Amino acid sequence: MTPANKIQGMLSDIAHGRSGDKGNHANIAVIAYNPQGYEWLKANLTVEVVCQYFRERKIHRAERYEAPNLLGLNFMLYDVLEGGASRSLLIDTQGKSLAYHLLQMPIEIPDEALKLRNPQEKIPS
User: Fold this and answer.
1) Distance CA 89, CA 81 (A)
2) How many CB atoms lie within 10 A of CB 5?
3) Is 23 left (phi over 0), alpha (psi -120 to 50) or beta?
4) Which residue from 95, 97, 109 is spatially nearest to 39, judged by alpha carbons?
5) Cα–Cα 20 to 30 A to 17, which of 41, 44, 83, 117?
6) Distant-in-sequence, close-in-space partners of 83: CB < 8 Å, separation ≥ 6
7) Residue 65 burial (C-beta neighbours within 10 Å; 0-12, 13-18, 19+)
8) How far apart are CA 24 and CA 29, in angstroms?
9) CA separation for the pair 78, 74 (Å, rounded)
10) SS3 state of residue 21
11) Are 61 and 48 in contact (CB under 8 A)?
């Protein structure tokens, strides 16, 4: 596929998400708007991609869980909260903003994949 056949966007164009803490660890759920988006997520949003995106957080270990019935992926990021809610000096000690941060990730998707987008969003003509 040539670059001309792809469009630039953000992960939030094809998915929504939530995140939270589990002590010193955080989890991020990324949920596609439709089955085609879920297939894109499974193929492209790997543990390596997520760890590279959050490289400044110095993640020690990460795991990805698939939830096909929800069209979602759940990422566990270990030791990412610098001690957790009661010990960390981070502004976001509970990792609540991590999903929002991840959804801002620039992505390239095939132009025919516009159907992956949020059905509530108007597509420019």
Assistant:
1) 9
2) 11
3) left
4) 109
5) 83
6) 24
7) exposed
8) 17
9) 13
10) strand
11) no
Q: What is the pLDDT of residues 60-118, one digit of tens each?
A: 899 999 999 999 999 999 987 766 666 666 666 677 789 899 999 999 887 766 666 76
Contact between 6 and 83 under an 8 Å Cβ cutoff? The reply is no
- Tell me the residue type at 26: A
Whether 4 and 18 have beta carbons less than 8 Å apart is answered as no
Residue 29 to residues 1, 62, 64, Cα–Cα distance (Å): 29, 13, 10
The kind and range of the H/E element at 26 are strand 25-32
CA dist., res. 12 & res. 32, Å (int): 9
pTM of the predicted protein model: 0.80
Higher-confidence residue: 27 or 58? 27
